[in-house]
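Quarterly update, task 2.4: S-adenosylmethionine-bound model.
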Amino acid sequence: MKKSRGGNGGRSRSGSKSGSASRTGGTKASKSGAANAAAKAGDAKTGAGKTGVGRSGARGLHVRVKTARGRKPSSTRWLQRQLNDPYVAEAKRAGYRSRAAWKLVEIDDRMHVLGPGKRVVDLGAAPGGWTQVVAERTAGAALIAVDVLEIDPLPGAEILQLDMTDAAASDVIRECLGGAADVVLSDMAAPTTGHRQTDHLRTMALCEIAVDFGCGVLAEGGAFVAKVFQGGAEGELLADLKRRFTSVRHIKPPASRDESPETYVVATGFRG
Ligand code: SAM
């Protein structure tokens, strides 16, 4: 397990704010900055929220990538998609580390799970886009970002390099948090294999781990957001969430690509 602090505004290992700690420095995209950047991109896509980034033709440009020697057609397609994706361009402009940041922006604009003072755990946080959004919107007492991969320091967040499938991981996070959480987020996804059923099972297993962790750490009234695949949370998992939370919804944020099987389950009002 590796532990690291954010830059200015990072917190100490005990979870208390360090020195002149402030949660505002560092992230280039302030809430309004991100919203403005998104607004500038145009809300071309039906259903995008007011901070949504239009997906089609927002920049009025279409970059064509020629096949290069040694580059696989799949890599050419990926590059072309990246260059023509307004979410990628706007994430770069707003200072977000990933286009995934817009998914949390859109989920939170609809569901209002974040807010000043909220104590948040962000699972599967690398490279840190969601964590940046949380830091902008909470200015709260604790923000812990967890990933099996290393994450570069982020202002306002304590970073833990942990594998959530490790039985000891939950205790380490709880100890670091030093109390209950108001919000548990999980964007965890296993590396895709291309085999749909395998990818589904592996990502749903991570979601179950997130639910277990969330139910062990959330304060009464808390919220849980997690990535799920295909039909969303189903069967026992869905029944469990409905028993433990007053409201359970599925959301496909506009920033989530249509062709992706991902969707998000948003559960609010933890019964404790
Ligand atoms: N939310 C992130 C952002 O905005 O930048 C993107 C998250 S990415 C889609 C999924 C992450 O889940 C990856 O960084 C991956 O390393 C992480 N992950 C997968 N399995 C994990 C595990 N067992 N424990 C912790 N993190 C895991």
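Highlight for this quarter: The two ends are 29 Å apart (CA to CA).
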